[in-house]
Amino acid sequence: MSLEYAIEYKCQMRRAYDEATLRALGRTSSLIARMVAETEESGRPPSEESVRFATRLGQELERSEQIADYCRQHCPACLNVMLEQEAPELRATLAARVEAIGCLGRISYPIEARFEHFLADRLQLIYDIVAPQEWPHLLHILLDPDSPFDGEATKELRRVTTSDGLRFFELRQPITLVARSGRLTTDHIFDLLAGFRSSDEGASGYQRELPVMALADYAELLEALLLNDLSSSERERLHSQGITYSQFVRFTYAVRLASRLEVRILLD
User: Fold this and answer.
1) Peptide bond into 88 cis (omega under 30)
2) What is the C-alpha to C-alpha distance for residues 55 and 35, in angstroms, rounded to an integer?
3) What is the C-alpha to C-alpha distance for residues 268 and 3, in angstroms, rounded to an integer?
4) Digit-coded pLDDT (tens) for 31-48
């Protein structure tokens, strides 16, 4: 399970393939890449079942690789190229979960408890020691009694356990903030990070979005929470502790790139 996202840049590939097809091809490529990485890490040969599975998806994987090649060489929305230039430390961390189609990405569930504690601590720190006039704009919206990010959607997700025993969040209860931010929990911030209901009513295949007008505010918030005032050694430690932090950092760069290109981020 994962939260999938896309930078909606109208390149040649999006004229050749609809959004649902690109998304399916990206999912296939990501899955095969994970299987290969896990096989290499274990040092054991792939199982017969894995080989049959990969062979059955061979045609889709070939199409995905063709699209990926175009992305890397020609598309300004290729997040992989941007990360190599601006965040090379992510290369090794995300190697096992590489996204071949550069405008696509995913944040895997469950959201790790360690990351949620980190996020709560960073949010609390901003509210406690930064002057309100210097807060990222979205932090004022979170405190507004009429904020649309009331935490209810995330609260519902926390209650879900699939038939396979999978959960959306490792923590069964959100973390409550105190003092200036006393009414907030981490449910509110995850609601905010999930964006807005899609303006095209899901015609793209994605049900939610970050609209162009909100991208700068989201980039400001994500950078304040995940990147600003952290030493390189601290970032390396966070990357090494799990995948959720790294995936949200990649998402931060996706928001920044979409803002430069003035296109939506699609979410589902």
Assistant:
1) no
2) 13
3) 6
4) 666 655 555 555 666 566
DSSP 102-134: TTEEEEESSBPHHHHHHHHHHHHHHHHHS-GGG
How does strand 2-7 pair with strand 104-108? Answer: antiparallel
List the alpha helices (DSSP H) in the chain.
12-16, 19-42, 48-56, 58-74, 79-86, 90-93, 113-129, 137-143, 152-158, 186-193, 212-226, 232-241, 244-261
The pairing of strands 2-7 and 265-267 is: antiparallel
pTM of this structure: 0.86
Q: What are phi and psi of 94, to 5 degrees?
A: -100, 5
Cβ-based neighbours of 117, under 8 Å, separated by 6 or more? 175
Helix (H) / strand (E) containing 173: none
**C-alpha Rg value of the chain to the nearest Å:** 19
Q: What is the pLDDT of residues 172-187, one digit of tens each?
A: 999 999 876 668 999 9
Burial class (CB in 10 A: 0-12, 13-18, 19+), 68: buried
